[in-house]
Amino acid sequence: MYPKIEINIDKLKHNTRTIVNLCKQNGIMTLFGVTKVVASDIKCMNVLIDSGITHIAESRIMNLKTISHCKRPKVLLRLPMANEVDDVVQYADISLNSELDTITLLNKAAKKQKKVHQIILMFDLGDLREGIWYEDDYLTIIDKILNLSHIRLIGIGTNLTCYGAIIPTQENLNMLVDIKNQIEKRFNVTLNIISGGNSSSLPLLFNHQLPKEINNLRIGEAIFLGRETAYEEEIKTCYQDVFTLKTQIIELKEKPSMPIGERGVDAFGQKPNYEDVGLMTRAILAIGKQDVYPGNIWPIDNNIKILGASSDHLILDATKGNYKIGDIISFRMNYGGLLQLMTSKYVKKIYVNKDMVNK
Ligand SMILES: Cc1ncc(COP(=O)(O)O)c(C=O)c1O
């Protein structure tokens, strides 16, 4: 059945072990494997667990529910919504938080369920996504959190690069270390987890520049796609081709490169521009923007080129290819593409175990 995404389990295992070992060697005591990009696919999750990941981290409660049998502690990455606190306490062992109001609701939910819910308090060091602003009066907030009966503050963390594209540095991560020291000194507590970010923190770790107090990372892209995300460099010892998208040609015809007739807007309300390069062999594949945005994938055969897509059709310039109807075209993808493809119910997920080359 097509379209399908092939997941090479051996390569995923290799990548996970490689990242786990690198982290262990550099003082990372707990490593959260971020499975949201594969919608917490159970087989992928089990590979991560068997390869040494200590916690499974997700951004959606719906996905945490599907892995409720998971053998490792589960972490909710996205700040909880007020209306989901009961589920958060039930399905997540740990959640990342930045709002006292929500933490108070979590406390109530935990009390009702006779549980103690663990939280990691997030700090915004400049990327402008979630977190208490690093200059704000966080000690007053911590004081209130420490007085909640069913909440345990197990650590602090930060998230960089995802929104503001801010790169983790010794300077900004030392701000987190500073916050840790302030909290521990003022309240005479120990924060067990100092979570220094995601795959964009790996270059610092590779260069042995991660502050020694950082003892946790939350890693997705480096494991699944073999890249760090500060500079988007390949991690040489990891595979970048764990995933392959395979799609089928449903039309192959010679046509002009410029649409003919009066032009309005396309299926997505856009006014596209086309380059007139004369006649070309155009292939239509049975996959579209409903499954993946064309900018997020690229053909492995570099003789062919994506021209565009509508919701169910992907159109290629196959002039230089040697294809026929029914042939399969394979693609690689970026993080956004993987996220979309693994979430689409129209894309079959297939697990394979071959094609290893030395890394
Ligand atoms: C809070 C948080 N931590 C970690 C990650 C993992 O990021 P990456 O895939 O770049 O390792 C994400 C990504 O979604 C996230 O939202």
Q: In angstroms, what is the radius of gyration? A: 23 Å
Distance between the terminal alpha carbons, to the nearest Å?
31 Å
Task: Just give the CATH class of the largest domain.
Answer: Alpha Beta
Strand fraction: 25-35%
Domain module tally: 2
Low-confidence sequence ranges: none
Q: For the residues shown, what is the average pLDDT?
A: 97
Series of secondary-structure elements, N-terminal to C-terminal: EHEHEHEHEHEEHEHEHEHEEEEEEHE
CATH topology of the largest domain: TIM Barrel
Name every ligand kind in the structure: pyridoxal-5'-phosphate
Global outline: elongated
**Got a strand count?**
17
Structure overview:
This protein is α/β, with parallel strands linked by helices. The protein has two domains: 9-225, TIM Barrel (Alpha-Beta Barrel); 243-352, Elongation Factor Tu (Ef-tu), domain 3. The protein is 27% helix and 25% strand. It is built from ten helices and 17 strands. The strands form two sheets. Strands 2, 3, 4, 5, 6, 7, 8, 9 and 10 form a nine-stranded parallel β-sheet that branches. Strands 1, 11, 12, 13, 14, 15, 16 and 17 form an eight-stranded mixed β-sheet that branches. α3 links the parallel β3 (55-58) and β4 (74-76). α1 packs across α2 and α4 crosses α5. The longest helix is centred in the middle third of the chain and has 18 residues, at 170-187. The mean pLDDT is 97. The structure holds pyridoxal-5'-phosphate. The site of pyridoxal-5'-phosphate has 14 residues, from β10 and α9.
